[in-house]
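[step 3/7] inverse_fold.run input=structure_tokens len=127
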């Protein structure tokens, strides 16, 4: 992980902009596309529970639907509706600030050496 790759001028960031209906008829997000070379956050038409950053009052003012407490897949559209109808906009950030490894490398005891060195050396995210 080199700093120019993380926050360079042509950095690609994930941008949720597509959705579909699954076999159950539930609206679901499709995998994100890449937004390249952003110099500021842009509005996003979709919200993801896996990528949600906001002030804590957004969570307090838009609690989980009490009838969907145990729903894992399919909760994003009702939550986004609650956010939007209470005046919150959703954005795609212009630079990567956090990541999630969907592989099994941590369980296997394998960690990307460059990423760990970058973190241990106290590199900040602002070039």
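[step 3/7] decode complete -> sequence:
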């Amino acid at each position: 992980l080199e700093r120019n790759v993380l926050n360079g001028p042509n950095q690609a960031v994930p941008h949720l902009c597509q959705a579909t209906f699954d076999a159950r008829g539930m609206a679901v997000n499709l995998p994100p596309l890449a937004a390249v070379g952003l110099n500021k956050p842009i509005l996003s038409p979709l919200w993801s529970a896996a990528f949600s950053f906001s002030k804590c009052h957004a969570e307090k003012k838009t609690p989980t639907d009490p009838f969907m407490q145990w729903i894992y897949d399919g909760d994003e559209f009702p939550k986004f509706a609650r956010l939007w109808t209470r005046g919150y906009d959703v954005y795609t950030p212009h630079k990567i600030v956090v990541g999630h490894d969907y592989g099994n490398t941590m369980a296997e005891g394998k960690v990307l050496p460059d990423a760990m060195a970058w973190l241990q050396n106290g590199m900040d995210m602002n070039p």
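[step 4/7] annotate
The two ends are 14 Å apart (CA to CA).
Confidence is low (pLDDT under 50) at residues 1-5, 123-127.
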